Amino acid sequence: MDLSYSPEYEAFRDEVRAFTREFGDRAPPAGDMREWQNLLIARGYAARTIPKEYGGFGAAPDVLKSRIVAEEFIAAGLPMGMSGQGISMLVPTLLEVGSEEQKRKYIAPTLRGEIVWCQGYSEPGAGSDLAALTTRATEEGDDFIINGQKIWTSTAAQADMMFCLVRTEPDKPKHEGISYILFSMKTPGIEVRPLVTMTGRAEFNEVFFTDVRVPKSGVVAGRGQGWMVANATLKHERGMLGDPNQAGTRLKAIVDLMREETVDGVRLMDNPVLRDRLLKLQARAHAMEFHGLRLLTSRLKGEDPGVAGLIVKLMGCELNHQLAAFAIDALGELGVLYGGSQHSRNNGNWQWNYMFDLGLIIGGGTAQIQKNIIAERGLGMPREPKPAKA
Amino acid sequence: MEFGLTPDQKMMQESIGRTLERVCPLERVRKTTDGTARDVLTAIAELGVTGMLIPEEFGGLGLQLLDAALAAEMLGRHVAPVPFVASSVMAPLALLGAGSEAQKRAYLPKLASGEATAGVAISEHASGARDKAGISARAGKLSGKSLFVLDFAGAEFFIVADNFGALHIVDADAKGLERTAFTTIDVTRAIGELSFDTVDAEPLSSGNPQATLERLIDAGRIMLAADTLGAGGRMIEKAVDYAKQRKQFGRVIGSFQAVKHMCAEMVAELEPCRALIWYAAYAFDAFPDQARRMAVHAKAHTAEVGTFVARTATEVHGGMGFTDLLGLHYWFKRIGFDRQALGGPEKVRHDAAVAQGWIGN
Ligand SMILES: Cc1cc2nc3c(=O)[nH]c(=O)nc-3n(C[C@H](O)[C@H](O)[C@H](O)COP(=O)(O)OP(=O)(O)OC[C@H]3O[C@@H](n4cnc5c(N)ncnc54)[C@H](O)[C@@H]3O)c2cc1C
User: Fold this and answer.
1) Averaged over B58-85, what is the pLDDT?
2) What is the CA radius of gyration of chain B?
3) Ligand 1 pocket: which of A93, A241, A314, A362 to mutate (most atoms <8 Å of CB)?
4) What is the ipTM of this complex?
5) Looking at beta carbons, which residues of chain B come within 8 Å of A307?
6) Is the peptide bond preceding residue A28 cis, with omega within 30 degrees of 0?
7) C-alpha angle with apex B140: B134 to B143, nearest 5 degrees?
8) Residues 6+ apart with CB under 8 A from A22
9) Which helix (H) or strand (E) holds A183?
10) Which of B266, B232, B234, B216 is nearest to B68 (CA)?
11) For residue A67, what pLDDT band results from cuts at 50, 70 and 90?
12) How far is the CA of B305 from the centre of ligand 1 (A)?
């Protein structure tokens, strides 16, 4: 164990810190998000390891430097640049399995925020059982004609493009006949209907396809390879969810809240029951933080972290949700106020987080699906017996 | 930056594990009734486990608390009925923190070699005084009583904290000292009561005894957490193995999702405890200002997770888990002991709030 950083890394940290001091005022909300993003890419604080020819900074992969960047941006209270399904899921997928043409065409504008993507996987009848999807793509010359429906598609209303799973070979076994295809959301025949969620906002949508004609060149890694490609993406999605930095930030906010907020003149922090619950969560947040460091070291050394790596989505999403749930309990009746209501604290953000986090526990593979993965891949337990053919 | 074990640490931990596998199988554990298996102690003493924290000049290995935590994990894994937390960790730290040169020379080498073991009587400071326990020191003599003395059985001497947190060494055979062993759920560990009637004691008065006492408590709590990590890890392995071979309804029970999910939840809860304990143990030496906060969190959180693992792993075994035949209860009880010793979770979390200045003492 050695938690110190070598001089090379300390120097790097100084450089990042100097940047955050000098340019912090250009960050949103004051500055424009895309300008901020381009500045970060130019300096290597976003898209750091993505090759130059695809619009990245082209640094050698170094997870420690990435961590230092994250630490310093969090400490300075600055946004890390753009995220979203295109940047965090599609780009790594294209780098892994995309064609040279696809990489050149899509990665750079995606990184710069010029193309916003949405992920068209789930369907009304295919959620956890994603491979049961039925949206059809039939061949017609150089095009596919798509018919069917997607659901729970985040940001579809704002998106320029979709990365989508469609069934191209209906006669093949369910995992084999799927293709992964990229196309424009402006294509005629696509209808997006916002789906309002429990938060009161429309965070996701239903998307309907009626004879949507898209070029075959959008297929990633070849026709029928969609399941393999989707799994590459899901790996990145689960890596993104359950981020321990978020738990640390939330915990700090709750500690501040409990030191300031009073009931009958008594600080929440002086209520032993609430304090005990807070301390339980603090221990969990520390455990996940150090667990993250442990995984980081495994990655640095190229070791397979095994089961330790598979638990992050489950435990991280759950912890974030519990933190928000606790903050609401600590607030008591104030905890029912929402948005900018009179008397509401933190603009009702705890309530919003509490609800939205439940969505994150469900999305990207539910808690139950994560437990199946942990048990089967992590502990080598038997898979569910295949259902008898109907 | 490297958050992980060195190759040496991994090797050491494996070799302790292999030795315990050989000298301390369940049949051996079953034969102990007072928490002290001399032969097991001798075997681990040969590997240096008893002297890990003791500097080389006194016959030890001169390692750090993280190394001791790795050993504690293995002892918990094998429910080893040997003194360790008090005798090999807390007592040496007391002597190193507050002992004179002469005291170090007199006591450390025999602890290092395993020739003698020491008990530690500080429970009143870690978890509060029960049944009017407390020790007053007057003119070099101790009176009163201390409960829940760790590594009680067979100790040659005791490290005792008086009511003011000053530390003393008391010979086990001292005149006026009465020793009463307690019957507990966990036969692999010995605790008991010391009762003092104007007993001769040697003060440990170099350095800062009160600060040393706080360090002992932190270290002890981290060791108990590491012990639970080991015991819990073994219980999960046993549950998973059992689930892969036990059949009901014509299939192995491990193919039932209810059972798989129990196993997944156990491992998902326990795995982050490992990082928390490593960090707490490392911070004990490297970042003393974080030591108290991390020690209490490691102790309390691992205790909570340990309890969950102990009951869930037992349930996965069905009726068999509840029998003495399988012996799973040794691990169950060890985790139960670790949870309460040196402060239960609520008490320990209270200490965490104080350590962070969230509340007054
Ligand atoms: C906030 C949010 C954003 C999302 N964004 C997107 C997006 O951008 N693009 C996209 O394609 N999809 C998106 N989704 C969809 C998401 O991937 C699915 O909702 C999720 O995979 C679960 O599928 P389902 O809703 O059909 O639930 P179901 O699969 O019907 O599950 C219902 C319940 O049954 C349980 N269950 C199902 N199968 C099993 C099993 N084998 N074992 C045990 N329990 C089981 C589940 O755990 C759950 O508790 C999003 C969802 C949410 C909530």
Assistant:
1) 98
2) 20
3) A362
4) 0.94
5) 267, 271
6) no
7) 30
8) none
9) strand A178-184
10) B216
11) confident
12) 28
